[in-house]
Write a structure and sequence with these properties.
Elements lengths: L11 E5 L9 H13 L4 E4 L4 H4 L9 H12 L3 E5 L7 H6 L26 H18 L5 E5 L11 H15 L2 H8 L26 H26 L8 E5 L17 E5 L11 H19 L3 E5 L18 H11 L2 E6 L26 H14 L13 E4 L2 H9 L10 H15 L3 E4 L10 E4 L9 H10 L3 E5 L21 H4 L1 E8 L5 E6 L11 E12 L3 E6 L8 E8 L2 E6 L1 E3 L1 H15 L13 E6 L2 E6 L5 E3 L7 E2 L10 E3 L4 E5 L1
Parallel strand pairs: 1-2, 1-8, 2-3, 3-4, 4-5, 5-6, 6-7, 7-8, 9-10, 9-11, 11-12, 12-18
Antiparallel strand pairs: 13-15, 14-15, 14-16, 15-19, 16-17, 17-18, 20-21, 21-25, 22-24, 23-25
Helix pairs in contact: 5-8, 8-12, 9-13, 13-16
Catalytic activity: Hydrolysis of terminal non-reducing beta-D-galactose residues in beta-D-galactosides
GO biological process, one term: galactose metabolic process
Pfam family, one: Glyco_hydro_42M
């Protein structure tokens, strides 16, 4: 994101604001602006849940209260991100037009309630959304205080109504043209499930068809496409009134209902809502930081540019199992982590706690006490002041030499398949184990799906590439032949885009590249392990053996060199890690899910040998992470204790503190230090 997309010169800092809940308290609305300025907030999001107040009766609009709020905000130096209100429709709409309500998998239509309880296909709902969006745009799209359209809120969910069934069939007709093509693609001869009429095709249902994996996969794609089409519909209803006003949607944590990579050309700016639970009893803050950082990097990778942190909590949530408070320092650290990974904003849900309903105990900048002399408010105020001094970072970006495959279709297919391990294949967790090795080394990473260009990278990591989309094997071949390094794993190249198994060996299309063929794969029970040891004089020689679990691939090398062998079971002595040279490049094949230390040791050796330019040129203590935006380094201490760090090279300067970094220095618990060099 270039800053001129919104024509602002500083980091955005603010919150979701719901003035419609306080229209009978003008004193509170006036106090809000005073407190926003005190908290160093320069933006708020408004309107996402305001439909009932904006259109209390069908066709009767009341925008004056919103206009007054936007005017007063702008007069006080606070911008508005204006939301379209489709995320929560008014009661009158559902009562008069019940077709707008969703139908669940069991084919029962919902009653009015909740939030995203609406059908994305319904022509009536689309028309009503376009009407109110158009009226909002007519009134506010050219207001100098409005800098961004926030389309709806956290799009998601699916509908199984007759309208959606017909839309699904039309989607299939467009894709496959004939029933014969569908029957072939879905392998419906199995169990005598062949379709002889388009009307026989229904979405997956617990009391109907759920065992045709091609159907399940295409339904996921349809739901994603239909949601994106609705997003496009919303965008097109507001854009004509000011084509230069950018759009965003707030994406969610590892949400797989929408293929987010497919949105890269549909919205102007990527944003997402981040709600990690820090200070867990069952996981370290370092591990939680890795999980969060990976999602930040996915968001940045969608458009290969900075994104917005649209929502986070300044304290705790109320919808997670435990509402854990952030310890002192963690609000600054977690917020600056987002900036370090490419965010040009830190925003919260919510500005002020509501008095009633389901989110009255959700964290907020201003709680029910209503004043600024609280720990949370002061944490927010301190962060806002710091962000004001970092404007030079706004136009920076991250330029990774490493890409990791994280593909939505692949995830859908893995989650739906039966075997070889129905108690958990753990695709996301497996990808994250590879990512964590780079994360802890301070090496930036891009995430790609199979539609992306991988030629610009030096290293391409493709864990559990179960589905191999048509033509992607050629991208990989060309990448390796031209000098790239491929790292792929067990359970790769197994099926095509409709989940049909490849014939004549796996990994399909890549056996020559990796120099082996996978013959069998052994699923391990929870708690069952194997291990493997290096037989190489060069690779992974520092440790006797590494434990493995879950899946053990039994491979037959052709040209690949065996670097590690299994130590146990009937396949003792078979390859667990191989290396093959192909063209000017090389391909590693990891045949099992190793313990975490393997990935750290393996990738540490690999990046040193490849001499990646993005490796930080200084060391940091355990639990301290280095993240990079151009020539800025964010040094983040995720330990709840002080650590002593080594002196940094003399070409680094401190950005916004007076800490002496050219001799050993102390990082306080949860401290983040920014240096430039």
């Amino acid at each position: 994101m270039e800053s001129n997309k919104m024509n602002v010169a500083s980091f955005l800092h603010g919150a979701d604001y719901n003035p419609e809940q306080w229209l009978d308290r003008p004193d509170i609305l006036a106090k809000d602006i005073e407190l926003m300025k005190e908290a160093n907030c320069n933006v708020v999001s408004i309107g996402m849940f305001s439909w009932a107040m904006l259109e209390p009766v069908e066709g009767v609009y009341n925008f004056d209260w919103m206009a007054n709020v936007i005017d007063r905000l702008y007069e006080n130096g606070i911008y508005t991100i204006l939301s379209t209100p489709s995320g929560a429709r008014p009661n009158w709409l559902a009562q008069k037009y019940p077709e707008v309500l969703r139908v669940e998998k069991n084919r029962v239509r919902n009653l009015f309630g909740l939030r995203h309880n609406h059908c994305y296909t319904s022509p009536i709902y689309r028309d009503k959304v376009a009407q109110i969006n158009g009226e909002l745009a007519k009134r506010f799209a050219n207001h100098p205080g409005v800098i961004l359209w926030h389309l709806s809120n956290e799009y998601g969910g699916e509908c199984h109504c007759p309208l959606c069934q017909e839309a699904f069939r039309n989607w299939l007709k467009e894709k496959y043209k004939t029933l014969d093509a569908i029957n072939d693609a879905w392998w419906t001869t199995f169990w005598s499930h062949r379709y002889t009429s388009w009307d026989q095709i229904e979405s997956p249902a617990p009391h109907g068809e759920m065992m045709v994996h091609g159907l399940n996969l295409d339904w996921n794609r349809f739901v994603s496409d239909q949601t994106i089409d609705f997003i496009r519909h919303e965008r097109d209803s507001v854009k004509p009134f000011n084509p230069k006003l950018p759009t965003t949607i707030n994406m969610m944590y590892y949400f797989f209902g929408i293929n987010y990579f497919d949105l890269k050309d549909e919205i102007d700016i990527v944003s997402w809502d981040s709600y990690p639970v820090w200070h867990k009893a069952t996981s370290s803050d370092l591990n939680i930081s890795c999980d969060t950082a990976m999602m930040h990097d996915i968001m940045r990778s969608i458009k290969n540019e900075p994104f917005l942190l649209m929502e986070s909590t300044p304290s705790m949530t109320n919808w997670q199992n435990v509402a854990k408070l952030k310890k002192p320092g963690m609000h600054m650290l977690s917020s600056m982590q987002a900036v370090a990974h490419g965010s040009n904003s830190v925003q919260y849900f919510q500005w002020r706690k509501s008095r009633g309903s389901s989110e009255k105990f959700h964290g907020a900048v201003v709680d029910h006490y209503g004043k600024s002399d609280t720990r949370v408010f002061n944490d927010v105020k301190e962060l806002g002041a710091r962000l004001k001094g970092l404007s030079d970072i706004l136009k920076t970006n991250t330029h990774p030499e490493v890409a990791i495959l994280f593909d939505w279709d692949n995830r859908w297919a893995i989650d739906d398949m039966q075997g070889p391990r129905n108690i958990g294949m753990h695709y996301k967790e497996t990808v994250q184990e590879h990512y964590k090795a780079f994360y802890e080394m301070g090496i930036p990473v891009d995430f790609v799906d199979m539609s992306c260009d991988i030629s610009k990278y030096k290293v391409f990591v493709a864990p559990m590439m179960y589905m191999l989309k048509y033509g992607f094997e050629n991208k990989i071949k060309e990448f390796v032949a031209n000098g790239g390094t491929l790292v792929t794993t067990y359970w790769s190249g197994i099926v095509n885009e409709t989940d049909l198994c490849f014939l004549e060996g796996t990994p399909h299309g890549l056996m020559e590249v990796v120099g082996l063929r996978s013959e069998e794969i052994d699923g391990l029970f929870d708690g069952e392990t194997n291990s493997a040891s290096s037989i190489s004089s060069h690779w992974l020689t520092e440790k006797d053996c590494y434990t493995s679990s879950e899946l053990c691939d039994l491979v037959i090398p052709s040209t690949a060199q065996t670097l590690m062998k299994y130590n146990e079971d009937f396949y003792k002595g078979m390859p667990a890690l191989t290396l093959n040279h192909f063209g000017k490049g090389q391909a590693f094949y990891i045949a099992t899910r190793f313990e975490e230390s393997f990935y750290h040791d393996f990738y540490s050796q690999l990046v040193q040998e490849l001499e990646l330019s993005t490796i930080p040129d200084f060391n940091v203590p355990k639990g301290v992470i280095v993240s990079t935006r151009d020539n800025y380094r964010f040094i983040q201490n995720f330990n709840n204790h002080e650590v002593e760090a080594e002196a940094l090279p003399t070409h680094y300067t401190v950005v916004d503190t007076d800490k002496d970094i050219h001799q050993n220095f102390i990082l306080k618990p949860f401290e983040v230090l920014i240096v430039k060099g």
